[in-house]
Recover the amino acids of this structure.
C-alpha cells in the first residue's frame, strides 16, 4: 500500500493537468457515518482543497452528520447516493477514509 504522503503527492500531481472533459477535476473524499479517523479524512481533504486545483467534495455513506474520531462531527457536502445522482460522470479521484474499527481488548 502507498504511504499517505506519497498518495497525496500523486493526487496533487495528477490534478495539475486537467482533463479535456473538465477544467477542474472533482475529488470525492469519503467518510463513514459510523465513525472515521479525523486524520484519515481531514488531511486529504485539506491538502487537496487548499491546492485549489480541484473541486473537493466531502461525501458520507448516509445523509446525516459524520462522527470523526476522536471527538469531531462534520456535515458532509452530500451522501454518496446524492453525489451519484448529481454527478453521473462521477469523480476523477475517490479517496476513502479509513472507517473506525473497534479494537479487540487484550
Amino acid at each position: 500500500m502507498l504511504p499517505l504522503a506519497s498518495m497525496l503527492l500523486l493526487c496533487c500531481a495528477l490534478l495539475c493537468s486537467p482533463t479535456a472533459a473538465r477544467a477542474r477535476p472533482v475529488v470525492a473524499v469519503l467518510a463513514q457515518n459510523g465513525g472515521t479517523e479525523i486524520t484519515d479524512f481531514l488531511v486529504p481533504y485539506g491538502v487537496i482543497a487548499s491546492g485549489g486545483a480541484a473541486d473537493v467534495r466531502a461525501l458520507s455513506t448516509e445523509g446525516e452528520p459524520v462522527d470523526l474520531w476522536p471527538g469531531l462531527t462534520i456535515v458532509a457536502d452530500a451522501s454518496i447516493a446524492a453525489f451519484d445522482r448529481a454527478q453521473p460522470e462521477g469523480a476523477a479521484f475517490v479517496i476513502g477514509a479509513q472507517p473506525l474499527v473497534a479494537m479487540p481488548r487484550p
Remarks:
- The first strand starts at residue 26 and ends at 31.
- The chain has a mean pLDDT of 81.
